[in-house]
Amino acid sequence: MAMLTLSLAEIRNRAQKFANEWQGETREHAEAKSFWDGFFQVFGRTRREVASFEDPVKKLEGQGKHFIDLLWKGVLMAEHKSAGKDLGKAESQAMGYIQELINSGRRVEVPRYLILSDFARIALHDLDEGKQWEIKLEDLPKNVEAFGFLAGMRQVEIKPQDPVNIEAAEKMAELHDALLEGGYPSEQLDQFLTRILFCLFAEDTQIFEANQFASFLLNETRDDGSDLGAQLAQLFSVLNTHEDKRQKTLGEHFHAFPYVNGRLFADHLPFAGTDSKMRETLLATTDLNWSRISPAIFGSMFQGVMEPKERRQVGAHYTGEPDILKVINPLFMDNLRAELAVILPLKDKKERLRRVRAFHDKIATLNFLDPACGCGNFLIIAYRELRALETEVIKHELQLTGQANQTITDIELLTRVRVSQFHGIEIGHFPAEIARVAMWLMDHQANMHLSKELGRYFLRLPLTDAANIVAGNALQIPWESVVAKDKCSFILGNPPFVGKHLMTPEQGQDVERAWGGLKGSGVLDFVTAWYRLAAQYIQGTKISVAFVSTNSITQGEQPGIYWSELFNRFKIKIHFGYRTFKWLSEARGRANVHVVIIGFGAYDRPDKKIFDAGGAVTVQNASNISPYLIEGADLAVRSRNKPLQDVPRCVYGNKPTDGGGLIIEEEDRGDFLNQNPGADKYIRPLLCAEEYLYNKARWCLWLLNATPADLRTIGGIKDRLQRVKEFRLSSPKLPTQRMANQPSLFAEIRQPTTEFMVVPQHTSENRHYVPFGYFGPENVIHNSCSAIPGATPYHFGILASGLHMAWMKQICGRLESRYRYSTQLVYNNFPWPTPTAPQKSAVERAGQAVLEARAQFPDSNLADLYDPVSMPPLLAKAHETLDRAVDKCYRATGFQSDRERVEYLFKLYEGLIANEDELLAASKTKRPKKAQKESPN
Question: pTM score, two decimals?
Answer without folding.
Answer: 0.74
